[in-house]
Give the backbone structure.
Amino acid sequence: MPQKPTVLCPIDYSEYSRVALRYAALIADHFKARLLLVTVNDLLLVQAAAMAYDAESLQLQSHQDLREFYRAANLASAPGADDVTYDVRTGKPAPEILKAAADAHADLIVMGTHGLSGARKAFFGATTERVLRETTVPVLVTRSDAPMIASLAEAAPSVGRILVPVDLTPATAHQVAVANGLAVALGVPLILTHVIEPLALPLRWRTHVGRADHERRAGAEEELRALTDHVTVPVETLLAYGDPAEEIAKLARDRGAGLLVLGLHGSTLLGPRMGSVTYRVLCLAPTLVLALPPVPAVSDSDTRLGGARFNAVVT
């Protein structure tokens, strides 16, 4: 019997994790997945508890706190009691979250991000950043001001459109396949965009910039058109010119895109790593973000939603 898919949601008892829990529970309930709630106790707290009374009591209390946090969320759509699991760990949050995802063979991580308020955020949570740098599992990043939807039917109006910024590398096909599957599930259109960065050239070569930019635009337009051949929902292609992160964030705001599907690039030596563009988009864009780690290869049978394990959750 195939293993039931698992949605993991880290809990730190903040408003950020409360919002993330709502989305995680909705996804788990809709796709009949197991919901795994993870909290991480600091090692110093555990050591202090062991000195004051006993570490086992702290562990039991932490499990109880997780259950109460879940019950207090008053979720309209939530998995049954048998499909909710509580995991209390000790250590640093990001490594323990990643270990929990690996141990549970999680298919999706849903987590909030801490950041500065205002239109232009300077940073987001160190734990979320670390998870994104090292994850091998897709991560849905929510924000404290994300719409509090109660069902998948309510998600479509709040999402509106899915924006897919692509860099036209080999990883793009997987990224578009996942975005297309989500667009089909939500019944919303896609926007595929590629941002052309200005060329930094010595003065003596700048007379050739116009011609080079024309060739770059023509090539990007052709590749974007080719990508639409594999999209089964209404799709729009846009070329932008400038700073990638700022242009992506601006497009999300201007076109009413409530969800971004971003790729997390990596290397065979270091594994998946979040690039500077992805980092800045997460800081700037006021949207939900689904971050996709690299995949070794995408077969024809996997392209409907970009991989068998992720298909189990979002189809």
About this structure: The chain has eleven helices and twelve strands. Residues 115-124, 267-271, 297-308 have pLDDT under 50 and may be disordered. The longest helix spans residues 209-228.
